[in-house]
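tool=predict chain=A
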Amino acid sequence: MTGKKDCYFLIILFGQLLGRYIFASEISVIQSVSNGAYVLSQRNTWEHVYENEKLTSGFRIKTEVGASVSIVINDVLNVILYENSLFELNENFSDKSNVISCALFYGSSEFWTSTSDKKIRINTPFKIISITGGKIRISVDEGNNTKFEVLSGRIKDVVDLNEVNPPNNVNKASFYVEMIDNYMKKLKSYYKMYEELSLTFEGLIENRLNTRQKTTPLVKEIERKFTEIMNTVLMMNEAKNRINMFAISLRKVVDAKNETNNDSNSDISDVSNILEELKMKQEEIITLKGKYNNIISSEVISIIKTYENLKNNRKRK
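tool=predict ok
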């Protein structure tokens, strides 16, 4: 029978996929908080969040019954997270990419911004909603269905990922594992794209440092590659979001199986087999996590500093 040990495995394995690293310009402030609101620490434990607390990019917050929390992200995006909700801000270096990417795993939240200079991307399990100004209310129910209401302004874009939950728990468990596997494959493909782009970027920078000729076309190409790198990092973040989203959904199915005695033995066996299949991917997931953390905490920051030095040198000339 599927046991609590399996659920604990999922908590440990996927909870650690979140990376949290400091980048000076990415600061969020907790404006207000009521009752039980928690932030995921770097030790992968939930800790109380407090009014006026500052958080760096790459945080996850959850609220319990009767709780709410108000957050100001990078002086641009205001978020109110209502009760029984889970929210994550991605490590997307929004001041460099001109995009703020976040995710509402479940529950309800309001988002508003007065600027049209940045694109706000709000990820839910089956949709990506983009706004450039105004206010929107979004909710994600137990079936991962997304509902949204525009309170002011307008939506720039809604991407429907065309994925629909199966009707019963056994099919749901299999579906969530399939989604985790799909987004792991996407994450690997984004890593490959990133590696190719970063090598090209490095070569262009070297050419720029060595050449004494007119360099405007070369600089333009460096700018294009830098933008492509930032966009690829964005795709990495959002693939990571969905691995975490579907892992949480899978854990809920497992918990439901543990709490009911009405399911047939064959159903329980099917879910157990699905979890065993997922456990076999543990080493691959840990490798993906390590690669992700290295890219976000070190490589991307180095690329940003190199790019900024290039721009500053151009200004001085």
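The chain has a mean pLDDT of 82. Residues 261 and 268 are 10 Å apart (CA to CA).
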